[in-house]
Write a structure and sequence with these properties.
heterodimer; A: 412 residues; alpha/beta; Rossmann fold; 13 helices; B: 200 residues; Pyruvate-ferredoxin Oxidoreductase, domain 3; 5 helices; 21% strand
């Protein structure tokens, strides 16, 4: 622990707010929505009490929130917002425009399941719906990781070779409202870590540098087509470059602040494992506890936690998966088109890219605030182990998810 | 006086009604345990929150870092902030053998219904104390005092310090300190069986 840091006890939303405060944004635009509200309320309080020198814009909806931040970012401001579920849906038009403009914003997604049926609770369907909109997607396991990752996200986003918006995801309910011990780093150390911002060197709303922003591009003529392709290629390059930058920034964070967080993929007790669980977000702690419990009974199981989901760390996932003979992928969202979890789809593609062939099961649980407990992970471990035993050359089987929380039974 | 140690993870479930401060109580207790050098995670239950409706909050404490962010299904200890709640909610659901109940009630401990294998039963007339202090049945701070007295797992001083970090909405710090202290002083504890190994 850095001697200048201090300990507080707070929930994941407050931890995110502290990460924002320490990153000193200039403009924060917000529209409150469950389960994000206490996050932006905490930020408004920081500003009202003079602890954070930022302009807070409470606007009439999320579409305006992100549009206002685009203007602020183009004018040179470091920006922040946070949203959830339907708020993200209402933000969609400016949301898809942001990566193409290469605006290095940071926005928290306090993950909430999507409508319908009506639901206000945690789930990752919101972010999974926009998983290929061009934003970097990072998922946190603990309140401490939320705080640290929000700060790191600014350095990742503003890296001149990246210049892309970052969503820092933390699960609604269990992480947004779960209270735990959190270490607050020293402001001067964070200032030095982030350095001087320069967010509009490439595109700006600036009377001193008049330019057309986002002109009509593309079309059927060859020159227009090539220019449009160049923008798309550039965005893809930024995403791929981000993989190395995310790793560098996490390594630097560990060096400066003494806390190591996995950058792309966390491997837990994987080296001698015969099977692995793949997890994402706040479910991962319970999965690790379940792996420990299974190991105490002689089952060699490890956990592969996805920290960076977009860009998808194909090589890191394949390297981790190559250590085991079968995988169980636990998703907190649904891919309706593939009848499986979205992370499951990504893992299958990563295995294929590495020439790996093994049994892989898709588990879906924790939807709409449902609890994912040790018992669920014990079941996933047992079924994945059985799949390893029964493996044959035809695997992986066509996707058919195993729905945790489907039996209506008490969960532990 | 040093607080008693838990052996491994100790799990507490707080039951109350919306407005009695069950969720805040779990956060205050987490703060006190962390200030005491331990690790704690508090998870509020969620549903259709409204004043008077049954709510609960979970708290885990250990000497080692805690990773799981899940609800509690097999508590070592149940704290019930409301005397009428056990009639409509099974507050004992999943409670471990030789568990502890801290119940807000004007009844004598001998008159409180409980599972046959309960080891420790403490009662505090928290509603009467709350009405005297707050004019409303906000029983959370009182029942934290009762928890400290009955279990010895956290000191009154640690809870006093944790209360100072709270931004109160419905009452002030002085009232809550008094509530905590009266809860501690006015709790009667009945030992039903030898203290379990897990918390000895």
């Amino acid at each position: 622990m850095n001697h200048l840091s201090r300990i507080i006890v707070c929930d994941g939303n407050e931890a995110a707010a502290w990460g924002v405060k320490l990153s000193r944004p200039d403009v924060i635009a917000v529209y409150p929505i469950t389960p994000q509200s206490s996050l932006v309320e905490t930020l408004a309080k920081f500003v009202a009490e003079g602890e954070l020198d930022a302009e807070v814009m409470p606007l009439e909806g999320e579409h305006s929130v992100l549009s206002a931040l685009q203007g602020a970012c183009l004018a040179g401001a470091r920006t922040y917002t946070a949203t959830s579920g339907p708020g993200l849906a209402f933000m969609f038009e400016p949301y898809v425009r942001t990566p193409g403009l290469r605006l290095p914003m940071v926005a928290s997604l306090v993950n909430r399941d999507m409508l319908s049926p009506q639901c206000v609770w945690g789930g990752q369907q919101d972010v999974m719906t926009v998983r290929d909109a061009g934003w970097i997607q990072i998922f946190c396991e603990s309140a401490q990781e939320v705080l640290d990752t929000v700060i790191m996200a600014y350095r990742i986003a503003e890296h001149p070779a990246v210049m892309l918006p970052v969503n820092v995801n933390h699960d609604g309910n269990y992480l947004s409202y779960g209270v735990s011990r959190v270490e607050i780093p020293d402001q001067a150390a964070v200032d030095a870590f982030l350095g001087e911002k320069n967010v509009n060197w490439h595109v700006a709303l600036d009377p001193e540098r008049p330019m057309a922003v986002d002109p009509l591009t593309g079309g059927a003529d060859a020159e227009g087509a090539a220019r449009f392709v160049a923008y798309r290629q550039s965005l893809c390059r930024g995403m791929q470059t981000a993989l190395a930058v995310i790793s560098e920034v996490h390594a630097d964070w560990a060096r400066v602040f003494g806390r190591e967080h996995a950058a792309l993929v966390e491997e837990y007790r994987l080296d001698d494992a015969e099977i692995g669980l793949v997890t994402i977000g706040s479910m991962s702690g319970a999965a690790k506890d379940a792996a420990d419990a299974a190991r105490a009974e002689g089952v060699r199981v490890g956990v592969i936690r996805i920290k960076t989901y977009r860009p998808f760390p194909i090589a890191a996932v394949a390297a981790a998966a190559s250590k085991v003979g079968a995988l169980g992928v636990v998703d907190r969202a649904v891919s309706y088109g593939w009848n499986c979890g979205p992370v499951y789809q990504d893992v299958l593609a990563a295995l294929y890219s590495a020439g790996l062939r093994m049994p892989v099961l898709s588990f879906i649980g924790g939807l709409a605030g449902a609890d994912l407990t040790g018992a669920h992970f014990a079941r996933a471990i047992a079924m994945t182990r059985a799949a390893l035993r029964e493996a044959d050359a035809t695997l992986p089987a066509p996707p058919s998810p195993i729905w945790l929380n489907a039996d209506g039974e008490a969960t532990r | 006086m040093a607080a008693r140690e838990t052996h491994g993870i100790y799990e507490i479930r707080i039951h109350g009604r919306g407005g009695q401060g069950a969720v805040l109580a779990s956060a205050v207790l987490a703060q006190a345990f962390v200030d005491d050098g331990r690790f704690a995670v508090a998870i509020p239950s969620f549903g259709f929150e409204r004043r008077g409706a049954p709510v609960s909050a979970c708290l885990r404490v250990d000497r080692r870092p805690l990773r799981g962010l899940t609800n509690i299904y097999h508590p070592d200890c149940v704290i019930c902030l409301d005397p009428t709640l056990p009639r409509m909610v099974n507050i004992f659901a999943g409670i471990k053998p030789a568990g502890t109940l801290i119940q807000a009630t004007s009844a004598a401990p001998e008159a409180v219904a409980h599972p046959p294998d309960l080891a420790t039963l403490a009662v505090c007339d928290a509603v009467a104390i709350a009405l005297a202090i707050f004019g409303r049945p906000i029983t959370n701070a009182i029942m934290l005092g009762a928890f400290a007295r009955a279990t010895g797992l956290i000191s009154l001083d640690a809870l006093r310090a944790a209360l100072e970090k709270v931004e109160f909405r419905d009452a002030n710090l002085a009232q809550n300190r008094l509530a905590l202290e009266r809860g501690y002083a006015e709790t009667r504890t009945l030992t039903l069986a030898p203290a379990p190994e897990a918390v000895s």
